[in-house]
Design goal:
The protein is mostly helical. Helix content is about 85%, strand content about 0%. It has helices at about 5-10, 15-35. About 0% of the residues are buried.
């Protein structure tokens, strides 16, 4: 699950922001599966 452009984009972001985005999309995907 590694994309070149996405890795380069998230690499420039702070670690906390990247983790926040990761958990946000994971939580959204989890709700999407439940609903």
């Amino acid at each position: 699950m590694t994309n070149g452009p996405m890795d380069a984009q998230y690499g420039s972001l702070p670690q906390s922001l990247s983790l926040f985005l990761f958990f946000f999309f994971f939580f959204f995907f989890f709700i999407f599966l439940v609903l």
